[in-house]
Write a structure and sequence with these properties.
heterodimer; A: alpha/beta; Rossmann fold; B: mainly alpha; ABC transporter involved in vitamin B12 uptake, BtuC
Chain lengths: 335, 314
């Protein structure tokens, strides 16, 4: 992460020659629909950190974050309309809905404003999308289990928030992986709402009814520690629980690794993806040709780089990567 | 007929019938092997709903329009601030508890100040105060999870005589609430205000004082639940209270307390809290998909409420 930062500032220094000329007077806004969990807080902090440096260096004139209170599409649409009136040149959006704010996004495009959506993307064609291949993320969990548990076995699936696109995608990927690997079987599925306490409650509720030989738990992030707690409370042996990059999950994993050689992996989206969206918006303003659909890599932590990642993650926070202008250019060029 | 009358007179019975039914169906799935595990899990997680549900019950009993929507934010703030103050030190547990109570009392005062001084309807007042409270929680710790002190973490997941400690705590609080409601003057006053506020005022009941104390009681109970939940689940999270908004209202209604106010019911809160946990466990156990699960949960809850309310308030 430090590495990326140094690279970033280096790139900044190198790029400022060309970038300064075109975007120094431009204003970028962040329209964010929700701030009520640690991932979103980390996302906002990354935005704050990276854009402040960029503004100080004169790359852009302003990069102001705005968050709606209620996580409602109507509210976010109104917010975007305000941002249009305030004269921003680009709006970076983490959307409450992939479709419901399309009208406002179209208005922004028509007003000549660049709209870049990320994480919660919008399907309005005039906007750019920085998407995560969530299905691939789900499938990568099963791919890992295939090597960790060559004999296969019974799995418990913890899903996210029912009815949300991301939940469906990750689950689809997991089920596709299981279909390819018939040695695995999903014997139970609960919704943990990506929250530790909800996951713990849901797992504790289904666990008594599940067979004793659960070998793995496939998750969506933010629910691994709760699952571990529930298994411990039920007095069951701990299966391979896929983690989701939260610090308490990593700390628990490290504890188990030191105590009994516990092995697993951890995968999630880095909250710093907001900074990637920022740089992409800056590049578009700078006149660069950018494809409308970009894919952001997910952040994966394995047995051997657990310690390094744990050390770099603030206590109680989420493992993170902040992107630099150079990273953004690499993603745009498809490298 | 007398047996039937007994059933008619006890609205809380239906929540227990429902809880027992779902419990039975769930353990049948494994032929009874899951009996102990499921029962303990149900008691553990029901405990949190019971504590917040009791507070909401007193508020709802105050009459139409009275409801506390700031419960989730209060839980989050209490858990966040208390864990930050304790900073994993066992020696600071008492301080953490005092802070928790302080948060509850403070929010209770703020809520009633909005309702009384600014004449805002409770539903709006507590909703708007919850935004402020949630923002304070975010500002306090920016979503960073601090672990609870080891002693507290252990206490909150341990059991005594096979019953989870948190359930014992919920029992103590429930007995206290039952005495307050059924045996004390305060409970009579709350019910009287809920039945007819004007009549209560004319009868010389200190209406404002009672309403004030009720909102404070609710906030304090929510704060305690938030404190316990954050110790239990290994740290406070910014969204940890969110599911308790609907739960707190649902357990009140399913438990046989009159939504229109005036009639409260403590045992029903237990039946309803156990039922709400068990119904989700049951549907998960039988592998119902999310859509089916939500529809069935809704249908079952409606059925129980109809069964309970038909026989209840006469």
């Amino acid at each position: 992460m430090k590495h990326a930062l140094i690279l970033g500032s280096l790139a900044l220094a190198l790029m400022s020659g060309s970038a300064l000329a075109d975007t120094a007077g431009k204003k970028i806004a962040l329209s964010n629909n929700y701030a009520g969990n640690s991932w979103r807080q980390a996302m906002l902090q990354s935005w704050d950190k990276v854009t402040k440096e960029a503004v100080a260096a004169g790359v852009v004139a302003a990069a102001d974050p705005f968050t709606t209170a209620e996580n409602q599409a109507t509210e976010q649409a109104a917010q975007i309309q305000n941002l249009i009136l305030q004269g921003y040149d680009a709006i970076v959006v983490n959307a409450a809905s992939p479709t419901a704010i399309n009208g406002a996004v179209k208005e922004a495009c028509d007003a000549g404003i660049i709209v870049v959506s990320f994480d919660g993307i919008v399907d309005e064609p005039c906007a750019w999308r920085i998407a995560v291949d969530f299905a691939a993320m789900g499938k990568s969990e099963v791919d890992y289990l295939k090597t960790a548990l060559p004999n296969g076995g019974k799995l418990l699936e913890i899903r996210g928030l029912a009815g949300v696109f991301v939940d469906d995608e990750i689950s689809k990927g997991i089920h596709a992986g299981v279909a390819e690997n018939p040695q695995f079987e999903i014997v139970g599925s609960v919704h943990g709402d990506w929250a530790q306490d909800v996951a713990q409650k849901a797992v504790a509720g289904i666990l008594p009814s599940l067979p004793a030989d659960i070998v793995g738990v496939v998750t969506q992030g933010g629910d691994g520690y709760g699952a571990a707690q529930a298994f411990a409370a039920a007095g069951r042996p701990t299966p391979v629980i896929i983690m989701g990059n939260r610090q308490d999950e990593l700390a628990w994993w490290k504890e188990q690794k030191d105590a009994n050689g516990y092995q697993t992996m951890s995968v999630s989206i880095a909250p710093g993806v907001s900074t990637l969206a920022f740089w992409v918006a800056q590049q578009i303003l700078d006149g660069k040709e950018v494809p409308k659909d970009l894919i952001v890599p997910f952040l994966r932590i394995d047995q051997d780089n657990l310690e390094a990642n744990l050390a770099a993650t603030p206590t109680g926070g989420v493992a993170n990567v902040e992107y630099s202008q150079a990273d953004a250019i690499a993603v745009i060029d498809g490298k | 007929m007398t047996a039937l009358r007994f059933v008619f007179a006890k609205p809380w019975l239906w929540s227990f019938v429902a809880a027992f039914g779902t419990w039975l169906v769930t353990i049948l799935f494994t032929g009874g092997a899951s009996t102990l595990g499921l029962s303990q899990a149900a008691l553990t997680f029901a405990a949190f709903s019971i504590i917040v549900g009791l507070g909401q019950m007193f508020v709802v009993t105050l009459g139409p329009g009275n409801v506390d929507l700031s419960i989730p934010a209060t839980m989050t703030l209490a858990g966040t601030v208390a864990l930050k103050v304790m900073d994993t030190q066992d020696g600071a547990i008492l301080l953490g508890l005092l802070v928790t109570l302080g948060v509850g009392i403070g929010i209770g005062i703020a809520n009633y100040a909005l309702i009384k001084l600014l004449r805002i309807p409770p539903i709006i007042a507590t909703l708007s105060s919850s935004f402020i409270v949630q923002s304070i929680a975010i500002a306090t710790n920016r979503g960073i999870r601090i672990k609870p002190p080891a002693v507290l973490a252990e206490f909150s997941i341990a059991s005594f005589l096979g019953v989870p400690n948190v359930a014992w705590l919920a029992l103590v609080i429930s007995v206290f609430a039952w005495v307050l409601l059924e045996k004390g003057l305060f409970g009579r006053w709350v019910s009287a205000i809920g039945q007819n506020m004007r009549a209560a005022r004319l009868a010389g009941i200190p209406v404002d004082g009672v309403r004030f104390l009720t909102y404070m009681l609710c906030a304090v109970l929510a704060a305690i639940a938030g404190f316990l939940l954050s110790c239990f689940s290994g740290g406070a999270a910014l969204n940890m209270g969110s599911e308790y908004l609907l739960t707190s209202i649902a357990v009140v209604v399913i438990g046989g307390t009159a939504v229109a106010g005036g009639f409260a019911n403590v045992p029903g809160i237990w039946g309803a809290s156990l039922f709400l946990f068990l119904v989700v466990s049951m549907l998960n156990t039988y592998g119902a998909s999310a859509g089916v699960r939500m529809v069935l949960t809704g249908v079952i809850i409606i059925a129980v409420i109809i069964a309970a309310s038909r026989k209840a308030v006469r």
